[in-house]
Give the backbone structure.
Amino acid sequence: MRPEILFPLFAPVTALPGIGPRLGKLVEKVAGPAVVDLLWHLPAALIDRRYAPKIAEATPGRIATLTVKIGKHEPAHNPRRPYKVICTDETGALQLVFFNARADWVTKLLPPDEVRVVSGRIDSFQGVLQMTHPDHVVTVEEAASLQAVEPVYPLTAGLTLKIVNKAMRAALARAPQLPEWQDAAWLARNGWQGWLAALMAAHAPERDADLEPLAASRQRLAYDELLANQLALALVRAHQRKLAGRAVSGDGTLRNRALAALPYRLTQSQQQALADILADMAEPQRMLRLLQGDVGSGKTVVAFLAMLNAVETGAQAALMAPTEILARQHFQTIEPIAEKIGVRVALLTGRDRGKSRQAALDGLADGTIAIAIGTHALFQDEVAFDDLALAVVDEQHRFGVHQRVTLAAKGRAVDMLVMTATPIPRTLMLTAYGDLDASRLTEKPAGRQPIDTRAVPLDRIAEVIDGIERALKSGAKVYWVCPLVEESEQSDLAAAAERQAELKGRFDERVGLVHGRMKGTDKDRAMERFAARDGGTDILVATTVIEVGVDVPAATVMVIEHAERFGLAQLHQLRGRIGRGAAKSTCILLYQAPLSEVARARLQIIRETEDGFRIAEEDLKLRGAGELLGTRQSGLPEFRMADLAAHGDLLAAARDDVKLILERDADLMDERGRALRTLLYLFQRDAAVKNLRSG
Ligand code: ADP
Ligand code: MG
């Protein structure tokens, strides 16, 4: 349970002065529903009110705080004219200007002959110094409470800085002194303050440098957040390790026969990945391993061999893919070899019905079918296994954690292998999985040639089409990827259909089309016609549906239209569809000039390298972590204060810190351990605390 000391921070924002239900909604929109969310809402800029000149010295254009004597009021004579108040000091005069102001309000605010401190932007209008709608008007006594430097917070329509400032001051006043969870020596070494002091400092920037991610107060808060993230992940992992697992270690007979039946040899990194996986499976704990490999690096066969390891022990394995096309493709890769070595494989997708489906269900339930390959149809209730020991999940970021768990629940102590073709930079891996065991396929299978990637402006499209004609004559197959039109699948489609029609004008019926709105069967048919040697189509116009996984080795040319609209990761995934055979491949990035700076950088990187991990790192630099994979769909956590582009080192430090912490005090029982529990609650990692012994 959340410690009492944190209760004030977890009150709704409507508990703060000035925030009613209506403004509460707006605060929730920019920061979040609780007081603590508001505290994490750090200033983005500042207003410096320390400039306090005499009137005669005040520079127009600057924010100034002036002590003035109120003089004559000049009310507006008609509604379009402003209400003016003349003020003076011993050096000169200044007009305070109000539009649409009620006279009684201005009179009360600025009583003639009294002295007031006014703060706002100085302007010069027709040679007269003015301040329009001062930000602050206070008495000399009240002036002490004026913030000399005012933080400026990100806002939304209807939410003013004044409101947020007031609420923030109240929120900060609620913030308690908390027991220190950081190591004292580490704080000293970095010159960091305690939590509360750092929080106060982060909300009271004095100069622009204080707003930077590397400002000491911000680093401290970011480190707290990262430490909470890493600690929570480590606790969950430690808990999983304690769950009963089973040692799965086959005798190798099926694997050896499969290897003999493969028309190629495993690459070094495939062998290494397989060895990692087999070692994990042999352990009595549950495996949770990530197999990362670029498109075409050969993950499927590694997964298949791991599945055979389970089958050798008399158990079963399942492979789950995110789409129908991918599930079928895995099936087509695996089934012929499985058949040769006498292992039965079933394909289960949403589309298979009737007798064959029932036969598959029966075979899985009684154990005569050893391997199931399918889509999310695999975790429907009527799918039961005799003895599932290994679940392989492909393209993991498309599935939620929940679905992974559902699949695992279909067996006893199921080992889990997660495959992803999205190269996740090391830093993001850490935040999403902590120290998840990971194997990387870093080499391409032998015989692959580098892809010749070129950027060509759209106005030279005619030359590109001539080039395609030549390529077709020499037997090539061509992908033509159509641009992504923002937020509208409909217009994606229109663009693709139009392009198909145009290409048909030149190449007749040899031009196919595949897009996301097509029915599964139609999609498969279009893919099959393109994949087959004499299937009728040699050019496949596609929207981004071909992005993931599809394998047509004869395809050696890809045109990406409006390449400047695609993200780096997407371009990389798309290009991975070619260069899969022994022939030389070409990728043409058709772009609309002029390119923005970022778009130019993206195209440059994609031309320079095919290394998915490098591309992902560059992508992180260009975009920032949150956007990288589309945080929500990827399941990657979003941080409030940590900025992975700036705080990558802190993340690594937090991971190491957590290792030490848990070695010394696995259940967070000692003094620092208890403080760390508070940290976990502060960052709403309540679930992680549940993995601890209570106390
Ligand atoms: P991924 O799933 O990693 O994108 P796949 O497993 O689909 O890649 O493999 C891509 C292609 O490479 C497949 O046609 C597969 O048969 C082939 N392949 C896999 N491993 C090797 C290897 N070691 N040597 C040659 N070809 C391989
Ligand atoms: Mg694959």
About this structure: Residues 299-300, 549 surround magnesium ion (ligand 2) (CB under 6 Å). The chain has 25 helices and 21 strands. The longest strand covers residues 63-74. Residues 216-242 form the longest helix (27 residues).
